[in-house]
Amino acid sequence: MAKKKGKKQKGKKPDYTTYIVLLILLVIVSVTTSRYIQSRRASNNSDVIEYNHFIFEKRGGMWHTQWQRDGDIYNLLLRFNPYEVENVTITGGLDDRFISSEVYVTFDPSYTATLTYVALGAAELSLNMARGLDITPVAACTINITDACSNRPIINCTNTEQAVVYIREDDEPAGLYLQGNCITISGRGMEILRAVDRLLYAWYGIEKLE
User: Fold this and answer.
1) E strands along 1-135, which residues?
2) Residue 183: how many CB atoms within 10 A of its CB?
3) How far is CA 96 from the centre of its chain?
């Protein structure tokens, strides 16, 4: 009896459709992820600005940048970025008496409505003076009517030839008034802090004092 020839089984063709579907899914995931990352970066970049070749980044509600003096890098931390303080009023001018390694930082303790902002402004100004600008701040008062002022120098813009920064409460918008050996920082509430940052940007050379 003749043997039946068995049919030769053909090899199973690879399922390229599966590979194509997987590749498409991979591309979709990659594109979606890329767009998400780009959108996150765009969102984050809204808190990054450039001003006069300095890069500022907002973190924790404060603006951070780096500043260099004598080869040393300092990390600066300010409440307002340079654009936010550009419109602070600046009048007058300083003379050589203000060129000093020691500066009195004074205030009037009789104005207590926003004394918290005055104290905060004085603290932030003094910290930057001592840490970054190599200037020694000397805490002072314009009059002696409180215990806190009893052991402090009594200094205003007219009773000394030394450099003075006078932080004064005022209902006017933020302002810097330059008069010989004295800078008066004027404002109320957050405007005081805005004027403080404007002065610091000038001292750091990021903005001009004019």
Assistant:
1) 48-51, 54-59, 62-69, 72-78, 89-94, 102-107
2) 25
3) 29
- Collapse the DSSP code of 34 into the 3-class scheme (helix H, G, I; strand E, B; otherwise coil) and give the result: helix
Closest CA to 156 of 93, 109, 202: 109
The rounded percent of the chain whose pLDDT value lies above 70 is: 77
**pTM for this structure?**
0.76
Contact predicate 151/191, CB 8 Å: no
The chain-wide mean pLDDT, for the chain, equals: 85
Q: Which residues contact 116 (CB under 8 A, 6 or more apart)?
A: none
For the chain, domains (ranges, CATH) are 88-203 (3.30.379)
Say if residues 186 and 168 touch (Cβ distance below 8 Å).
yes
